[in-house]
Design brief:
This protein has six helices and nine strands. The chain has 202 residues and is an alpha/beta fold. It has a domain of 134 residues: Rossmann fold (3-Layer(aba) Sandwich), CATH 3.40.50.170. Helix 1 packs parallel to helix 6 and helix 5 crosses helix 6. The structure holds 5-O-phosphono-beta-D-ribofuranosylamine. 5-O-phosphono-beta-D-ribofuranosylamine binds next to helix 1, strand 5 and helix 6.
Length: 202
């Protein structure tokens, strides 16, 4: 079984979607370890409830590089091949990305490249777009910028506020993240420039 490591900072609903897919046998691998940079993150409990090793690596008082090297070491030590960011509120340094080249995924609550950065759902709502959505992408050194693995569009309804929109986008995140992980674990994604071509996708 291929091993996945998940990095979180908070609630962990995307982690839950990945845990559920893993236990249903539809992730294409298993979640070997969950690491949070925040002690008390709710997602840690979700991992433990699923019988998955849940660790804390506090970033405070350490350089980004030192912390990233420690987390990368933890993940590698547990045989992790693919790293999933799931509400991990830290930018990764090149030190981390070099340890897992092309093997770090992130889920973002907009149709990238629109609305990168924080509070993407509110940014989209305030801009007045009629369609937003969710994106899973490979992480590179840019902000929410790497090659796209999966996207799902979500309509912005007239009665939506930012919170209603965010809730509907979150449901899309939970659908596309497990299937994007499976694509990567099955080795079906091939990079051509910045396009990720997916074998067997129609
Ligand atoms: C999600 O909206 C994700 O797209 C963003 O942070 C949020 C994390 O939520 N990167 P959760 O912790 O997975 O519930």
């Amino acid at each position: 079984m291929k091993k996945v490591g998940v990095l979180i900072s908070g609630r962990g609903s995307n982690l839950q979607a990945l845990l559920d897919a893993a236990s249903a046998g539809s992730l294409g691998g298993e979640i070997a370890v969950v690491v949070s940079n925040v002690e008390g993150a709710a997602g840690l409990e979700r991992a433990r409830r699923a019988g998955v090793l849940a660790l804390v690596s506090d970033h405070r008082g350490r350089s980004r590089e030192d912390h990233d090297a420690a987390v990368a070491g933890l993940l590698a030590g547990h045989g992790v091949e693919l790293v999933c960011l799931a509400g991990y509120m830290r930018l990764l340094s090149p030190v981390f990305l070099r340890a897992f080249p092309g093997r770090v995924l992130n889920v973002h609550p907009s149709l990238l490249p629109a609305f990168p950065g924080r509070d993407a759902q509110r940014q989209a709502w305030e801009h007045g777009v009629k369609v937003s959505g969710a994106t899973v992408h490979v992480v590179d050194e840019g902000l929410d910028a790497g090659p796209i693995v999966a996207q799902e569009a979500v309509p912005v309804l007239e009665e939506d506020g930012p919170d209603e929109l965010a809730a509907r986008i979150l449901e899309a995140e939970h659908r596309i993240y497990p299937s994007a992980v499976r694509i990567m674990l099955e080795g079906r994604g091939r990079l051509e420039g910045r396009r990720l071509r997916i074998e067997g996708r129609t």
